[in-house]
Design brief:
The protein is an alpha+beta fold. It has a domain of 128 residues: Pnp Oxidase, Chain A, CATH 2.30.110.10. The chain is built from 4 helices and 12 strands; from the N terminus they run ααβββββαβαββββββ. The strands form 3 sheets. A 7-stranded antiparallel beta sheet has the order 3-2-6-9-10-5-4. β9 and β10 form a beta hairpin. It starts with a helix and ends with a strand.
Length: 183
């Protein structure tokens, strides 16, 4: 029996995917482990921030990043208008910050009041203290993709805040939950 014969063959989508196919896509996509980060920006003297796991390095030369944001979210609208943002890659010990900034209905006022952060040197956007790495980015392009915005930008500042130890682990999103790498 061939491998293809042993797999369930229900992968071809109609013109518009069904709710079951969307749910199956979400389940299968959760099999991808990804790092967890916080994206932040300042718009009209107000901090905006959210947890993200859909980001990637586009290019090393010049340093370029991409982040995927739900197009109707406050953070997407703020990032699109502000034209700059910071991305802080979280450690496993920063799970509480990730949970807080991923929670629906977080307040606009005082959003970062319970999170230790500092201002990035190039953009003034919030950089999460103790992050594995941070990048300050100026937006160069925004692309619509289904329900999301793909925001591309050039890195204008970067660094690290976490002191390396043997037990240091990035915060990972896998299987619909946050996890850590085992040392």
């Amino acid at each position: 029996m061939e491998l293809a014969d042993s797999l369930e063959v229900n992968r071809v989508f109609p013109q518009v995917p069904t709710r079951d196919q969307i749910d199956e896509y979400r389940r299968l996509s959760a099999e991808h482990a990804s790092g967890v980060a916080v994206i932040s920006t300042v718009l009209r003297n107000r901090d905006h921030a959210a947890t993200v796991s859909a980001y990637l390095s586009v290019s090393y030369d010049p340093p370029t990043l991409l982040v995927s944001l739900y197009a109707e979210s406050r953070i997407a609208l703020a990032v699109a208008e502000s034209k700059s943002w910071a991305l802080s890659l979280l450690t496993a010990e920063q799970k509480a910050a990730a949970n807080w900034l991923a929670s629906p209905g977080t307040p606009i006022e005082g959003l970062l009041s319970q999170i230790d952060f500092r201002r990035g040197p190039a953009t003034g956007n919030a950089v999460i203290a103790g992050a594995l790495a941070f990048f300050e980015v100026e937006t160069t392009a925004i692309h619509e993709a289904a329900t999301h915005m793909l925001v591309v930008g050039k890195v204008v500042s970067m660094g690290e805040d976490a002191s390396w130890t043997r037990d240091l682990s990035p915060l990972i999103h896998y299987g619909g939950d946050y996890r850590r790498l085992r040392p």
